[in-house]
């Protein structure tokens, strides 16, 4: 599992093709809603969960997939980009896991991500 306390994800930007990296993990009825990537790592939001992808090693052939079900979210926080700080952030608090933090580029519609999460946890 990804160590979210010591792992810092690079700032991610939306990349619809990145979601294909998790196609083999999807269960029947699960669809990709949105996907984001940094240089190698990424995060995929489906209609059932969030899948964090940590690409490891020199060649990138080793990958760690962490499944974060929406049903385990107890709270979340978004920070939108501003005039001088162009990046946005998402912090999600999971029962039994704790805080997971993702950073996005300023062009990312963080409010849309918050809506996706809200629709699935309420």
UniProtKB/TrEMBL annotation:
> At the top level of its lineage, which domain of life is listed?
Bacteria
Q: Which Pfam families match?
A: bPH_1 (PF08000)
The UniProt entry, under Gene3D superfamilies, shows:
Bacterial Pleckstrin homology domain (2.30.29.50)
Instruction: Provide the Bacterial Pleckstrin homology domain boundaries.
Output: 17-119
What is the name of this protein? PH domain-containing protein
């Amino acid at each position: 599992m990804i160590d979210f306390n010591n792992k810092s994800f690079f700032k991610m930007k939306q990349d619809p093709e990145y979601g294909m990296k998790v196609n083999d993990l999807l269960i029947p009825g699960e669809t990709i809603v949105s996907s984001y990537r940094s240089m190698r790592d990424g995060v995929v939001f489906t209609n059932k969960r969030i899948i964090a992808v940590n690409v490891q090693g020199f060649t990138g052939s080793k990958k760690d997939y962490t499944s974060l079900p929406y049903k385990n979210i107890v709270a979340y926080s978004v920070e939108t980009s501003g005039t001088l700080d162009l990046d946005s952030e998402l912090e999600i608090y999971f029962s039994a896991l704790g805080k997971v933090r993702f950073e996005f580029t300023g062009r990312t519609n963080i409010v849309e991500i918050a809506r996706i999460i809200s629709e699935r946890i309420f």
